[in-house]
Amino acid sequence: SGPLRLAVVPGDGIGPEVTAEALKVLQAVVPAEVGLTPTRYDLGAEHYLATGEVLPDPVLEEIRSHDAILLGAVGGKPGDPNLPPGLLERGLLLRLRFELDHYVNLRPSRTYPGTPSPLSEEVLAKGDVDFIVVREGTEGPYTGNGGALRVGTPAEVATEVSVNTAYGVERVVRHAFARASGRRKRLTLVHKTNVLTHAGAVWWRITQEVAAEHPDVEVDYMHVDATMIHLVTDPQRFDVIVTDNLFGDIVTDLAGAVTGGIGLSASGNINADRTSPSMFEPVHGSAPDIAGQQVADPTAAILSAALLLEHVDLPAQAAAIEQAVLDDLAEQAGAARRRTAEIGDAIATRLS
Ligand code: NAD
Ligand code: IPM
Ligand code: MN
């Protein structure tokens, strides 16, 4: 089947710094008989400011021909007058997710022995936290289905309409149930059915229908606001959370923050039907506040590379990365902060 063909989009801010470390780790762990051929695509703020291009169609088609995509982060400096808000987020990141039909946005969260967490002693004493968020990736309020009237006047009206199709909800809910079956068999639907009654009804009905096919999985429902409470007071109760695109975005930043921090939060944008390449990236963004200083934690990018290997059927290598990260974090407990490349080197060394 030839070497693993990887499209690499380092992107903006800390994106290139953390992606370099993820690639280093991949090079160390992918067996020589498989091989790895990365192709780098310089897309993002710098490329846009220099060329006016965000994601030209031929580049998208080239990216599509790879086995998987490794992405760093997308987003320029806030307030840059030459960068319209959302231009890169929509035109590059979301375009890739939508065009490649990444309907499963998989975001695991767990506590790591030796890694500090802002959770209270009392909460941590209840045991390890280990859950995944299955965030819908192609619909919700992200579709750009909205508009504005009378812009700039006191009578301005702006809408962002959330799109929820039975097709789109069912496929991601089915995926979440399948994952729950292979885990602790507990699925929580997170939504706001008490207010968003139209969208809520689709999510509720389809979850109940699919639940009937999975008597092994215990199903729970929680409003998204209350979920914020439980993530902080009782995160051990979660195994698989399934939710829409925007709720999932918000839930997963908190999930990262209460476990090991956003520097450890990995994600996969997965096309579970394998009709196009899936894309793996940290949950965090380009972090312009710390970019270029070699202080970003590359662990989230490295764990995203592990999710990538799992997806391309190299589960032993994926598990090896996870173990190396665990060992690295355990060894570092209480130690001084390391530079980005030092962390990547330490994890790669454990694997070679
Ligand atoms: P952010 O995730 O970039 O940063 C939030 C905070 O977390 C900052 O204080 C940052 O320094 C810190 N942080 C993030 N990653 C870290 C790491 N690896 N190690 C240590 N600290 C880390 O979120 P933001 O500031 O809201 O967004 C900045 C830009 O990134 C925006 O343009 C946004 O649109 C974009 N963004 C892109 C993605 C993506 O590409 N997937 C995700 C989120 C935000
Ligand atoms: C993320 C980011 C993106 C999202 C933005 C940058 C479009 O916040 O990957 O979590 O909202 O999905
Ligand atoms: Mn986000």
CATH superfamily of the largest domain: Isopropylmalate Dehydrogenase
How many distinct domains? 2
CATH structural architecture of the largest domain:
3-Layer(aba) Sandwich
> Unreliable stretches, pLDDT < 50, 5 or more residues?
none
Order of helices and strands: EHEHHEHEHEEEHEHEHEHEEHHH
Q: How many distinct beta strands?
A: 12
Distance between the termini: 24 Å
Main sheet specs: 10 strands, mixed
- Physical arrangement of strands within the biggest beta sheet: 2-1-3-12-11-4-5-10-8-9
Please state roughly what percent of the residues sit in beta strands, choosing from under 5%, 5-15%, 15-25%, 25-35%, 35-45% or over 45%.
15-25%
Rg computed from alpha carbons, rounded to a whole number of angstroms: 20 Å
- Structural class of the helices, strands and pairings? alpha/beta
The shape, in one word, is globular
Bound molecules: nicotinamide-adenine-dinucleotide, 3-isopropylmalic acid, manganese (II) ion
Q: Determine the fraction of residues in helical runs and give it as a percent range.
A: 40-55%
> Total number of helical segments?
12
**CATH domain class of the largest domain:** Alpha Beta
The CATH topology of the largest domain corresponds to Isopropylmalate Dehydrogenase
Whole-number average pLDDT? Answer: 97
